[in-house]
Amino acid sequence: MAQLPCGARIGLLVAAIVFVVVQMRLFAAEQRYALRATSAVESEEDCQKELRKLGDKLLSQQTTLVYLEGEKGRLEKENGKLATVLEDLQSNAQVQKLSGNLKQGQVAAVVIMTCNRPEYLERTLKSVIKYHKDVAERFPLFVSQDGTDEYVMETARGYSEVNYLQHLDDNPPKTKNPGELIAYYKIASHYKWALTQLFNKRGFRRVIILEDDMEIAPDFFSYFEATASLLDTDKTLLAVSSWNDNGQDRFVSDPEELYRSDFFPGLGWMLTKSTWEELAPKWPDAYWDDWLRLNETRKGRQFIRPEVCRTYNFGEHGSSLGQFYEQYLKPIRLNNVNVDWKSKDLTFMEERQYNQDFSELVAKAKLVLASEALREADFGEGDIRVYYDFLTEFKTLAKLFGIFDDTKVRSSCIFFTFVAFIILCNIG
Description:
alpha/beta, eight-stranded mixed β-sheet, four-stranded mixed β-sheet
């Protein structure tokens, strides 16, 4: 190096100095990067620690949530049990209250059966309440709803006079035969439930059943009050009805006339608790009204019905799909005379006296052939009687006079006014 020129030595020295400076800067940069890397690692570890803490906290919260859900379910079950107990206590208190009321002249509970026709129910309630306010203590008013239609519920609860019942079927009925309407099964189930509520849980001695498509006559309550004691004491009676299937305007005249019939009219009827206790265990799954008309159900017992109806059925649309409405239901005459039934002596409706009086009436009526019945009714004098044997003869006579020709309505004796008093007697 001593042999190198001075300029070269200076160049080498400068290069050495530059190299040292560069190395020092590189070392400093590496130190900075190392510190940053160490800091990043530490930050990552801190983040992982925080994530683990959050995970542990979330797991703890999830465990708490599961526990709270379980507690919620348990409390709901407890609330359900408490609600049932409370309902039973209230029911027992109501029974005791009603039992006390029975001693103060209570006649019968009145229940309107409804499902999903709020407009119909509104019309029925207005008609019933119009005449109910003066007899409210003697005839507690109920509406029993089958199902959850909110408008029906609002309609029923909109009247302070109404006690509201709701039937919720945990095990919906099923039809037994192809082509059947499930509605008839639901109706039978609802009827059984409602009557059980009123007779067994609320302690009524009698119940009057209406439907949500009926209007009532001014003397509706008076009529049932007058016949209540007769229904209690006469064991040859099964029920009292406010309806006459042949109560069309042209066939009726006397608002004070009553009859005994072996055909169940329905459509506004009253039965006793003792009768219900007999019927309830055998109550059918469907077609309850047809079942009540069977001989094995009636066991020879009869029904009281008026000549002029105390109920009017305006239900053109319903489970029966408007069957017979225009021809047979729409022309029904609803009584508009306020008969003072309390002043009437109804002992003539007792079986022995009634049978005697009616036998005399039949015997005095002129016997005519079926082929001459219409002419004799139009132009003859006095009452007439016509005997028939077969169902085909009955349907022919029914169509001849325009009365209900459904064979389910056929009774041992059918009587109606058609200028003369007509008696159709079944000898089959």
